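anyone seen this seq b4? input:
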Amino acid sequence: MRKKVFNFIRFGVVFTILSSCMTLNNDDKYAEKTYRFFITPAFTSVWEMHQEKFQECIHEYIEGNRITYQVAYAPHLKLTQEDILLSFYKLPINNAKSFQIGSGKIKFIANASNPQGFLTIEDLRDILEGKKTNWQALSIPIEQKQNYSAEEIQLYLYPSFDEITMALKDGLEMQYPISGASILLTNQSEIINAVSNDKRGLGVVIETNGTQPGVNPIEIQGQADKWTLPIIVHLPNNSDDRLIHLVGCFQKVLTT
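predicted toks r here
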C-alpha cells in the first residue's frame, strides 16, 4: 500500500503553548501543572472547527498552566493525571475512563468535475476492497456511463490505524483489506487538496462547516447512521478535577 504517512504522526509533534501566568493559590493542589492534550489525526478537523470555543474553555478552567498539544494516534498511550485524549471511537487506553461528548459524521468527497453524486453501500464496499476500480463499473444507468471516466478510481484515506478507516471497515462489514492502491494521507486538509487536484479522486473526511473548493460531496445511499461517529474523551482514572469541568465545557461546545 502506498503510504504518504509521516513518522511525526506516529510519535507525535508537540506544540507547546504557555498560557499567560495568572497568580494561583499557593496550595500545592493549585500549583502550576502541565496539561497534555492528545488529539488523533482525524480529530484535528473538529479541533480546528471549534478551536476558538475550545480555547475559551481552556482559558476558563486551566489558564495559568503549561499546556501542550500533541497530534498522534496513541492506542497504547498511558495517560497521567493531567492528560486528555480526544478521538472518534473509544480507544483501548489502559487505566482510563471514556465519555461521549458529541458526534461527528464521515463525509465522502469526489473531484468537482466528477458527475457522480451518490454511491450505494455495495459500490463503496467494492471500491474500498478494490473490486471496482473505475467509475464506469459503478451502479450507474447504462445511458449515463459515457459521462464517466474509465480511469481507475484513486482512493485517498487516513492511515489504516486511524479510527476513521476502522469505522469504514466496521460499518461496511468488509471481508477483505482496503485496496492497496489507496494513498494514505495524514490529515483532512491533505485529503481534500489531493481529491481537488485529481479527477479520479475519492476521499473520506469528517464533515465540517462550509464548503471545500474543488470537491463535491458524494451521498451514500442507505444506512446513514453508519457514518455518524461518537466523539470520545479519554481521561485517566485519577484525572485532575479541573479536567472534569473542562470536558463539560467541551461537551457544550459540541452539542450547542
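The longest helix spans residues 241-255. Residues 105-228 form a domain with the D-Maltodextrin-Binding Protein; domain 2 fold (CATH 3.40.190.10). kinda curious what u guys think
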